[in-house]
Every structure is written in structure tokens, then in C-alpha cells.
From TrEMBL, chain A:
<keyword id="KW-1003">Cell membrane</keyword>
<feature type="transmembrane region" description="Helical">
    <location>
        <begin position="200"/>
        <end position="218"/>
    </location>
</feature>
<keyword id="KW-0812">Transmembrane</keyword>
<protein>
    <submittedName>
        <fullName>Branched-chain amino acid ABC transporter permease</fullName>
    </submittedName>
</protein>
<feature type="transmembrane region" description="Helical">
    <location>
        <begin position="62"/>
        <end position="84"/>
    </location>
</feature>
<feature type="transmembrane region" description="Helical">
    <location>
        <begin position="115"/>
        <end position="135"/>
    </location>
</feature>
<keyword id="KW-1133">Transmembrane helix</keyword>
<feature type="transmembrane region" description="Helical">
    <location>
        <begin position="325"/>
        <end position="343"/>
    </location>
</feature>
<dbReference type="Pfam" id="PF02653">
    <property type="entry name" value="BPD_transp_2"/>
</dbReference>
TrEMBL record, chain B:
<keyword id="KW-0067">ATP-binding</keyword>
<dbReference type="GO" id="GO:0005524">
    <property type="term" value="F:ATP binding"/>
</dbReference>
<keyword id="KW-0813">Transport</keyword>
<dbReference type="InterPro" id="IPR027417">
    <property type="entry name" value="P-loop_NTPase"/>
</dbReference>
<dbReference type="InterPro" id="IPR003439">
    <property type="entry name" value="ABC_transporter-like_ATP-bd"/>
</dbReference>
<dbReference type="InterPro" id="IPR017871">
    <property type="entry name" value="ABC_transporter-like_CS"/>
</dbReference>
<protein>
    <submittedName>
        <fullName>ABC transporter ATP-binding protein</fullName>
    </submittedName>
</protein>
<dbReference type="Pfam" id="PF00005">
    <property type="entry name" value="ABC_tran"/>
</dbReference>
<keyword id="KW-0547">Nucleotide-binding</keyword>
């Protein structure tokens, strides 16, 4: 076991070494290749050569869309948990705010009857999610870690209960006929239709790239440094001049905005939003994905979010000694998590600035100095 | 006792000529005005009263548990005094946020090193340099000119400070991988990056061997020569005597002496406090 791990670690080390010391063009070429691969992935002509990778139980294009939404969510949550070290257990609540905002303003089943196009509701959805992040964060971010976890958990649950029981939010009946994103092919057929999931996936993929560029810009600035400093030692950060509350609120708001974006995209494809989309489990899955991938690391979040969402879908339709694996997906998932935490607590893609949140509680109390 | 301090002289122990040329102006920088601080029943600071003047190196000494660190914590806004107040550059700092006090020009290091362990040495200092930066989140998101300018300035400053404290070679190493002595130096560099008027050092030489202590002494003098006032907590009497212009002595939260190093060294209460005479007749 140890030798396998050593072998694995040394291999990973060599890769990272080559990555960081190799010429710049090589890095860009590799990134470009990965991007091209993922744009090509939903085409049958391409994925039929990929052996067992395409899902068997469900349409691969739809699966890829779901996976991409999870990746977007993981990138957003990584800002909050990974960078700023704020334990947010209700991140999916922001997804819900985004999806429901779109639903309420565009769907004919909404009481508002505004019937906006999707494109008009999108910026509003992002703005409202951001606002809800600020409203949730303002009273709670002054508290220390554990309280925040509980309050965020309560927030997501509150949204779910509101969606289930409020007349305005339509409960399980939900909102239907939510419009799709705009755009049509030269022959007049809409790009974003009902049958072909690929354009939606490509749209999310493109947005992921833009979001990652933005997050990376923040990460390499005063803002990112403030986040990490807060995570590592909040009091020391403040004593070095970091306005900690302000930057925690920004982490929360930017994370929320990305969650809202994901929710709006989901609503735009799904056509239908109801309280059944809102399970507590989703928050946990995304959090687990971020930690699994390597908290505090953008690449880690992408890998974690993608892998978790993909594997859960991959189990669909697979039988193992007569047992439908999909039924046991969360048990297997939990098992993987436990194993990971034992053998590789820093996540799949290890990070130079590994999260100290989980290993170090010293900063909870300031003593002596 | 403070009145006896008319004209601080150079500490008599051999020091570099730099220390001699510094004339201490009598402009108050920090006034600790009859501060009392209680933790439940414990009186950590009891009516402590002293003034720090611009340009000097003031030593704050006292046996374990005397309240030295607590005094730093009260100054930097971690604790609020139960009674009395603290003024910095003529302004009350009671009730101000920690980062605001830092922006006013007070910086500190910690007795138990508190760097950002997963960040590199360079990044640690950049955080300090960011204290005076104004780049907004939007500006950073789109890499606007202000972000680029401040980023360049901060980087330059951080490199200069790494060089100043003598750890340029460790620039890209995570702070937790630095040696103990390097971490202490990095803490000083990080504090200096906030452009302090007053630098508070909490036992910066703890755990150092004599050679390292001597180097640190030189560093503290160089910092003062750059126009930074220094407040130094230190256990090592020889080090304190060698570098400070004046000394304040605390015991059980009370100030028991204040004066020139030579005076303080002769003070029978200080000797008693350090040797434990009053409680211990055996001596
Ligand atoms: N947060 C706190 N809660 C309760 N008591 C405290 C707290 N901080 C300090 N004290 C007490 O205040 C007194 C002074 O402590 P302080 O750390 O300031 O001493 P010090 O002079 O720095 O000692 P040392 O030389 O050991 O660092 C001690 O009795 C300590 O137990
Ligand atoms: Mg102390």
C-alpha cells in the first residue's frame, strides 16, 4: 500500500515539476488541448472512441450538462470554503435562489406574469443571489466558523421549505415553460431547444472558462491574498491591516453569484423548476466535491465537481451481481470520501496552500498573541 | 519616575555608531494612560501608565505573566481596556478596529509566531503591504491599471523587505517551511510592510543563540535608523540593555520602574522582581 502511494506521489510530483518548470507555451498548449477535448466530448463521433467513459444509463449530453453545472458550483463554493475558509453547508440555497428567480420572472405559471425572456432574468437572478449572499453574510460572518456552518445550513433549508409550502413558489407543481436562452441557427431553428443538450453544455463550459479566469484574477490579487490570510489566521490577518469582514463578505457574495448563475442556467435548460430540485444532499455533495478535489485550489474544485457528478451518473444502469449500483451511489460516494480523508486529506489535486480550516482550530481563540 | 528621564543617553554597552547619532525628540507617539485590564478576577494590567516618544527604542520588560503581551494586545485593539485609554499619534484608539489601528501606523509581531503558514514568505509580506492598497474587487477582477500598479509596488516592497531582514533566498518557500529564526525575521518584515510608525516586537529573540541575538540587535537598530519607533518586549536583560533607550518594567500587571537602562538595572525593585527576593527569603 505504502509503495503504491509513494509511486503515485512521486509520479504526481514529477508531473507537477514538469508543469511548473516547463516552457510557457507547453502549458498553454496543454490547457488548450483540454478545453478542445471538453468541447468535443458531447459529440457521438468523438465519444464513441472513448470506451467506457460515456454513460450507458442516460443520454451522455444531458449527463455532461449536469456535470458542468456541478463544476460551476464547485468553483463557486471553492471561493467560500477553499479560499476564505468559511464553512458554508447551504451553498445549494444560492443555486435555488438563481433558479427560482428565473422561474418566477419568466414562467407563465408564475403569479407575476411578467413572462420575461431568459436573458433578461439572468442578470437579475445573479444580482438577487448576490444580494441574498450579502444579507445572509452580514449578520453571520462576524461569527466564528461553527456558527456560520449552522446558519448556512438553515438558510438552504429555509429556501427549500419556502419553495415547498409557499403558494407563490408553487411547491411540487413548480414552474413550467421556462424559456430557453436566445439564439437560432441560420435555418431559423433555435440553438437552445428541447432535444439537443449539447448547446447548453457548451454554454456552461464557456461560462466556466470565463468564471475561472475571473476567479484566478481575484486569486492572484490583494483579494485572494486576503482570503487565504483570513483562512490561515483571521486575527493575524486583521492585525496586518486586512479588513476581514469586508473580504469575507466578498467571498460569500462572489460564491453566491456563481451559484445563482448555475441555478439560472439550470432553469433555462430544464424548462421546469420545482421544490423537488432542492435537496439538502446537493449542498453536501458539492462541499464533498470541493474537498475531494482539493480545497483551496481551482483545478481541484473543477476535478472534484466534475468527477463526483460524473461518477454518480455513471452508476446509473450498471448492475453488479444483480444489484443496481445507482441505488447505492451515495453509500459508495461516502466510502470514497472516508478513504480519501484517511489516505489523502489534502484532496486529489494537492494544493501548496492547503486549507488549514480542518486541521487547525487554534485560531478559534486568541491567546497571548 | 518618568521625570528623571531628561536626556536619554546612549546605552553604555557597545553598540554601533548609528545608535549614537539618534537624538530622541520628545514628541509623544503612544500614550498608555492609566490603563487597567481585567480578565474576570485576573488583573492583567493595573493602572499602567507610560509614554513612548517618537524615534526611541523602548524596552518593555518583566517576569513571566507580568502583562507585557496583554499590553500589546490592548494597544493593537485585541482587548479593550477596562479603565483608562490609549492614544496613538494623539488619537484615541479605544474602540477602533484592529485593521484601522494598523493603518494608523502601528504594527506588531507575535510571541508565538503567527505567520500565514501556507503562504510563501513573499506573499506573507505582500499581505502586509496590501494594508495601504486600495484595489477594489472589481479592479482586481478585470486587472485594471490600479491593480497592476499596486501589485507591482507591493511586490517590489516585499522583495526589498525580504532582503532587508536577510531571507531573500526563501522568497518562494511556504512560511511553515522556514526555519524558526527565518520565521521570526519574516514576521518582522511582514509588520514593516504595513509602513508602521511604531513597531511592536514581542520577544523577537526568544530561542535565539547569542550570535542570532546580536544579528537581531543590529536589525532593530537599522529599523530605528529608518525612522521607525520601536517597542520591544524582551526577556534577555543583556539584549534589552544593549539596544533600548529607555525601559519600562512591569510586574503582576503594575509598572514598577521606568528609566534609562542603567537606572533600571540598579533599581532594587527590578532586581527583586527578577530574582524573586520578596517572596523568597532564601535568596
Ligand atoms: N485572554 C486571557 N484570559 C485570561 N487571562 C489572561 C488572558 N490573557 C492573559 N491573561 C493573564 O494575564 C496575565 C498577563 O499575561 P501576559 O501574557 O500579558 O504576560 P507576559 O508578560 O506577556 O508573560 P510572558 O513573559 O510569559 O509572555 C497572566 O496572568 C495571564 O494568565
Ligand atoms: Mg508575553
Amino acid at each position: 500500500m505504502t509503495s503504491v502511494r509513494e509511486w503515485f506521489d512521486s509520479g504526481r510530483h514529477a508531473v507537477s515539476e514538469r508543469w511548473h518548470n516547463g516552457p510557457r507555451w507547453m502549458r498553454w498548449a496543454l490547457i488548450a488541448a483540454v478545453i478542445v477535448f471538453f468541447y468535443a466530448l458531447p459529440n457521438r463521433e468523438f465519444y464513441q472512441w472513448l470506451g467506457p467513459i460515456p454513460t450507458t444509463g442516460s443520454n451522455f449530453g444531458h449527463v455532461l450538462f449536469t456535470v458542468s453545472i456541478y463544476v460551476l458550483l464547485a468553483v463557486g463554493l471553492n471561493i467560500v470554503v477553499g479560499f476564505a475558509g468559511l464553512l458554508d453547508l447551504g451553498y445549494f440555497g444560492f443555486f435555488a435562489v438563481g433558479a427560482y428567480t428565473v422561474a418566477v420572472f419568466t414562467s407563465p405559471s408564475s403569479d407575476l406574469k411578467t413572462l420575461w425572456p431568459w436573458m433578461l432574468a439572468l442578470p437579475l437572478a445573479i444580482a438577487l443571489t448576490m444580494l441574498s449572499g450579502v444579507m445572509l453574510g452580514t449578520p453571520t460572518l462576524r461569527l466564528r466558523g461553527d456558527y456560520l456552518a449552522i446558519v448556512t445550513l438553515g438558510f438552504a433549508e429555509m429556501i427549500r421549505v419556502a419553495a415547498t409550502s409557499s403558494e407563490f413558489l408553487k411547491g411540487q407543481r413548480g414552474f413550467n415553460q421556462i424559456p430557453h436562452p436566445p439564439g437560432s441557427y441560420p435555418d431559423g431553428k433555435p440553438i437552445f431547444g428541447v432535444l439537443d443538450p449539447r448547446p447548453y453544455y457548451w454554454l456552461v463550459l464557456t461560462l466556466i472558462i470565463l468564471v475561472v479566469i475571473g476567479v484566478q484574477n481575484l486569486n492572484r490579487s490583494r483579494v485572494g491574498r486576503a482570503w487565504i490570510a483570513i483562512r490561515e489566521d483571521e486575527d493575524a490577518a486583521q492585525l496586518m491591516g486586512v479588513p476581514t469582514f469586508k473580504f469575507k463578505l466578498w467571498a460569500f457574495a462572489s460564491g453566491a453569484a456563481i451559484g445563482g448563475l448555475a441555478g439560472a442556467l439550470f432553469a433555462g435548460k430544464q424548462n421546469f423548476v420545482s421544490s423537488q430540485n432542492l435537496e439538502l444532499l446537493n449542498s453536501i455533495i458539492i462541499l464533498a466535491a470541493v474537498i475531494l478535489g482539493g480545497s483551496g485550489n481551482i483545478v481541484g474544485a473543477i476535478v472534484g465537481g466534475g468527477l463526483v457528478a460524473y461518477l454518480i451518473e455513471r452508476f446509473r444502469g450498471i448492475e453488479f451481481f444483480g444489484i443496481e449500483l445507482y441505488e447505492y451511489r451515495f453509500m459508495l460516494f461516502g466510502l470514497v470520501l472516508v478513504v480519501m480523508m484517511i489516505f489523502r486529506p489534502q484532496g486529489l489535486v494537492a494544493n501548496r496552500r492547503r486549507a488549514a480550516e480542518f486541521k487547525d482550530r487554534r485560531k478559534e481563540v486568541i491567546v497571548g498573541g | 519616575m518618568g521625570e528623571t528621564v531628561q536626556k536619554p543617553t546612549v546605552p553604555e554597552q557597545a553598540g554601533p555608531p548609528a545608535a549614537e547619532s539618534t537624538a530622541v525628540t520628545r514628541e509623544p507617539l503612544l500614550e498608555v494612560d492609566h490603563v487597567t485590564l481585567r480578565f474576570g478576577g485576573v488583573v492583567a494590567l493595573n493602572d499602567v501608565n507610560f509614554t513612548l516618544y517618537k524615534g526611541e527604542i523602548l524596552g518593555l520588560i518583566g517576569p513571566n505573566g507580568a502583562g507585557k503581551t496583554t499590553c500589546f494586545n490592548a494597544m493593537t485593539g485585541i482587548y479593550q481596556p477596562s479603565e483608562g485609554e490609549i492614544r496613538f499619534r494623539g488619537e484615541r484608539i479605544t474602540g477602533k478596529k484592529k485593521h484601522q489601528i494598523t493603518k494608523m501606523g502601528m504594527a506588531r509581531t507575535f510571541q508565538n509566531i503567527r505567520l500565514f503558514p501556507e503562504m510563501t514568505a513573499l506573499e506573507n509580506i505582500q499581505v502586509g503591504a496590501d494594508a495601504h492598497h486600495k484595489t477594489s474587487v472589481i479592479s482586481a477582477l478585470f486587472r485594471l491599471p490600479r491593480h497592476r500598479r499596486e501589485e507591482r509596488d507591493g511586490l517590489e516592497k516585499a522583495e526589498r523587505l525580504l532582503d532587508f531582514v536577510g531571507i531573500s533566498g526563501r522568497m518562494h518557500d511556504a512560511a511553515r517551511n522556514l526555519s524558526y529564526g527565518e520565521q521570526r525575521r519574516l514576521e518582522i518584515a511582514r509588520a514593516l510592510a504595513t509602513d508602521p510608525v511604531l513597531l511592536c516586537l514581542d520577544e523577537p529573540a526568544a530561542g535565539f543563540n547569542p550570535a542570532e541575538k546580536e544579528e537581531l540587535l543590529q536589525l532593530i537598530r537599522r529599523i530605528r535608523d529608518q525612522g521607525v519607533t520601536v517597542l520591544l518586549i524582551e526577556h534577555d536583560m543583556r539584549l534589552v540593555m544593549g539596544v533600548t533607550d529607555r525601559i519600562v518594567v512591569l510586574e503582576f500587571g503594575k509598572k514598577i520602574a521606568e528609566g534609562l537602562p542603567a537606572e533600571v538595572r540598579e533599581d532594587h525593585r527590578v532586581i527583586a522582581a527578577y530574582l524573586g527576593v520578596p517572596d523568597d527569603d532564601v535568596a
